Amino acid sequence: MQIALVPLLTDNYGYLLRDPASGATAIVDPSEAGPVLAAAEARGWRLSHILNTHHHADHSGGNLGLKQATGAVVVGPAPDRARIPGIDIALDEGARFRLGDAEAEILFIPGHTKGHIAFHFRGERALFCGDTLFSLGCGRMFEGTAPMMWDSLDKLRRLPAETRVFCGHEYTAANARFAASIDPDNQALRRREREVAELRGRDKPTIPSTMGEERAANPFLRADDPALAAAVGLPDAPPAEVFGEIRRRKDNFR
Ligand code: ZN
Ligand code: FE
User: Which of 45, 55, 118, 231 is disulfide-compatible with 129, CB 3.0–4.6 A?
Assistant: First the structure.
């Protein structure tokens, strides 16, 4: 499967996915239609599917325009079928989505929104996780609770280390500053921080990272690490509570 990153709005990423054998082509989380159509046309690709991880407009605002322009089939989370513009196929946890020869398993990962899903293409070592997991960060809990979001992140962190993590936003540099403030001695984080500074200095995306890197460096995946629990003043607290405290601190971090 070919994967092309498409910058959208100010800091969103959409992803064009193409199965070369069949020509089937999907866009993940189109904020807007115009730049997605242009990116597909520039490659000679014809859109057949629109995949949404969640209902927010910066992930689904392009659905109707793209559907009208291309006839693409809209695929999204079943729990949010009422909030996904133009939805044709609604998928739940464990469902499969095929793009030609490539197959994704649907993971239900609520917390940022109540209906959020991820597309995990195991054979392609690729995860599209919207606004649940970011590189060195995670999404805000607009509709969920800390235990719910922690369960979702725990599900994601169990994926193979070599899984490429394609998330919804370029937030990595700001996330790195916060992560370093609570976990300053983490060498994997420091390494990633230098890499991110170098990439952003050249105006390059920091995405994808890998799940192995995130497990080592992302504080939101490490709420069950006793050192991190102690660092936020909650030694011996359950991981979901430690996670909630880390998220609260990030919400207030300047
Ligand atoms: Zn969102
Ligand atoms: Fe978003």
Answer: 118
What DSSP designation does 110 have?
-
Q: Is 116 annotated in the active site?
A: no
**239 C-alpha to center of ligand 2: Å?**
25
R_g of the chain computed on alpha carbons: 18
What tokens does 113 get? Answer: 């929104």
9, burial (CB in 10 Å: exposed 0-12, middle 13-18, buried 19+): middle
Q: Give φ, ψ of 97 to 5 degrees.
A: -125, 125
Rounded Cα distance, 75 and 72, in Å: 9
Pairing verdict, β 117-121 and 126-128: antiparallel
pTM here is 0.98
Indicate if 112 belongs to the active site: yes
Which residues, by Cβ under 5 Å, contact ligand 2, an ion? 58, 131, 168
> pLDDT tens across 45-57, in order?
999 999 999 999 9
DSSP per-residue string spanning 144-201: S-HHHHHHHHHHHHTS-TT-EEE-SB--HHHHHHHHHHH-TT-HHHHHHHHHHHHHHH
Which domains can be identified in the chain, with CATH numbers?
A: 2-251 (3.60.15.10)
Q: What is the pLDDT of residues 52-89, one digit of tens each?
A: 999 999 999 999 999 999 999 999 999 999 999 999 99
